[in-house]
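Bumping with the actual sequence this time:
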Amino acid sequence: MQRILEKCLKFRVFIQPRKFPFTATSECRNPPIITNPCSHPSLLSTNPNPNPSIPPNKSTNLSGDGDAYGTPNFGESVDFDKEEIDCDSDSEEADIDDDDFKVLDLFNKNSSNGEEEEVVVVEERDESRHPMVRETCRLIGLRSEWNPKLEAELRHLLRSLSPRQLAAVLRAQSDERVAVSFFYWGDRQWRYRHPPEAYYTMLEILSKTRLCMASRRIFRLMIRRRISRRGKDFGFLMLSYSRAGKIRSALRVLSFMQKDGCSADVSVCNTAIHVLVVANRLGKAMMFLDRMERVGIKPDVVTFNCLIKGLCDVYRVDEALEMIREMPFKGCNPDKVSYYTVISFLCKEKRVEEVRDVLDKMEKDANLFRDQVAYNMVIHVLSKHGHADEAVGFLREADERGFRIDKVGYSAIVDSYCRNGKMDEAKEIVSEMFGKGCLPDVVTYSAVVNGFCRIGMIDQARKMMKHMYKNGCKPNTVTHTSLLNGLCKIGSSLEARELLNKSEEEWWTPSGITYSVVVHGLRREGKLAEACGLVLQMMRNGFFPTTVEINLLIHGLCREGKASEAKKFMEECQSKGCATNVVNFTTIIHGFCKQGDLESALSLLDDMYLSNRHPDVVTYTVVVDALGRNDRFNEATALVQKMLQRGLYPTPVTYRTVIHRYCEKGKVEELLKLLEKMLVRQEFRTAYNQVIEKLCGFDKLDEAYKSLGKVLRTASKLDSDTCRVLMDCYLRKGLPLQSYKVACRMFQRNLIPDVKLCQKVSNSLVLEGHADDAGRLMTKFAERGYRLAQHN
């Protein structure tokens, strides 16, 4: 009967069309969607499974959301970010209450879990090379080519793996989401339960990612399966929340930990302090330390080192040194990491004398003598931040004390000198390396080659590369890239391209950066055809340019009036699998518009929808500007309305473009109707002000006067300036009576016109025989307390 049931279930699985919707990528910022296998509303629900013999949500159907027929959807379709969280919603700016720390008072430092915590002994033997582990990883990697046979084989392997081997399989996945999906797929298998090691391993893996919701689900599964929770497991959950930016949720794990009956230890508290320090909540971290000490949890050196790092990050190095001095009085002696953290900060700030003082205090107060590691660290940090001369001083001091600095330290100094253009000093350091028997490696030589190329001494760079071969050091990709970059800087990009094409003959492999360096060199010299050809060659070799690099070439072609070639180049990039975006399309559309080829621009605008590249407000603005320039206002109006219907908000540039083109052609009525629709979508305070000022600029004063009422609605300082522009235009045109009317309308809105301008208007009115109007204008000023000169 059982066999018949299994056959029926298998038939139910394999009758649907096959697909595999889950494709892993290397990033974890936008994780895929996986349905939560646990339905309990709390984060750490303690309700056990009513039937422990059958795990909940078990099914042989591996299709999460419609995928079946042997397609193991490693985890159902779940959105880690959208699932409801039990804690309050928090953000980066959400403050942390002191109540989140009071949970420490509820812990009894002598308490323990009701049951004795299970101790998992892990042998040092590496299981990642075991044949079963390798075969399981291979089958997981073939998920895009899944079939029932491979599924059955994977199911068999899953049941045969030991706990350590299963943990090795989970750790071997390059994408954590694949590990999560495989974990849930295995959890749904018939009559199979993951061992506790699988849960512990998954929490440890997810603590290094932002997939906090996955960690939460695994924790809930542990409670359902009655798997003991250790203190470090709660710490892993806290780290997951912290990486996802959910700081308050991370701290509230302490409350769940207390409710779960697990006592807080120093490692969990260290995790909490680390979470606060990383979130730039140093004050709260110090409060947490004080609360730890009050409840009897003694901080260790890791606790203080984390706080010292936080103090140095906010430039409070004096307080960090004070904490180091207080550590022995709290029963915890500082280690070298404590001092090295402060020393590293002082090196970045070029506070060399203080570095020496801290080294002396390290020897005197803590009996931690400076060694080769200390000197290497100081030399490396000083050199990294451009303080090569100070690094050489410590190099000499290390020699006097009998410590031998390795080639890494020397290479750091050489690179610092080369980046600052001090090639003579760099050559002296290289000569010193030979004298001391510390032969330079390819990193050292590459730094020298790059330094010569920075200052344009290409011949010296070539000699250095020949010198490398003589000393048995073969130049690598970085060395050749530096040389090609130097050639491009001096305008020899064609020579750089020839050397690039000879890479196979010289037995070195160019990288994507190498191609990009030469492409930018060709572009800067105006050799756009050669640059585009090199980009296509680059893609044939498996390297894809970014959308920014593509856009630079497209922009260069359009600037030379070759929009058609730019379009062809973009289509070739798309056909070879290179990503393009809306900016690339907009650049080509702008190129067509500048050439006056509106039909090609509109055609490409339609093609954007076919390519799933929806135009943005910039694209619409460019096309509307071109249509207005060619008196095609009906199409421009329809395009603006289409933009608004698609939910795009017009920008200030869009408003200025529309106002300029419509005012230029005198389409004032159409413009005002269109502005009303645009203002409903996005408010723009100076829209009508710009309309009047543009009309004045195009000598369309009557249309400007008709639109004056829309400006005088608000009666602000901007409106007063706009009216002044209109009055000045009327006055220059010899129409002082119209200027007088504008001033009267301003007085009606309690706006005071410009006094000096009104005096000119008054004089012009008197000259034209409108003395009564001139007197009334001056009277309005007198009524408001202005004293003006009398006019005859």
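The tokens above came from a reply further down the thread. Residues 337 and 659 are 64 Å apart (CA to CA).
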